[in-house]
Specification:
The protein folds into two domains: 65 residues, Winged helix-like DNA-binding domain superfamily/Winged helix DNA-binding domain (Arc Repressor Mutant, subunit A, Orthogonal Bundle); 41 residues, no CATH class. Helices cover 59% and strands 6% of the residues. The chain is built from five helices and three strands; from the N terminus they run H-E-H-H-E-E-H-H. Strands 1-3-2 form a three-stranded antiparallel β-sheet. The protein is elongated. The termini are far apart.
Length: 128
Amino acid sequence: MTLKIDLALDEDTGTPPYEQLRAQISEQARSGRLPVGYRLPTVRGLAQELGLAANTVAKAYRALETDGVIETRGRNGTFVAAAGDAAIRQAATAAQTFAEQVHRLGLTEDEALLAARDALRAVYGSRD
């Protein structure tokens, strides 16, 4: 059985194509739809398949590599990394930095949590 990456770009969202690619690949890797070790298409191959500039796909791949979702193994290709642990570690580091900063600012725990919830709603949208 050959697994094929499933990507769909929406020109009407206002979200740049590289960000749509980054988000979709990241979500599929974290959900297990793209298993650890899955070899991603080449930058040029994916760009051609999606009708995008190679630089657009390369930008998405660079962001994914920075996030720890994928890893490039030189001429061997680009693969899905064991991203779950890396994502959790990065989130914990960001949370620690946030906690230290709000403490320095003199905010209460409730004020800090409210600020964090507002920021998350801004990114994820309201869940009310």
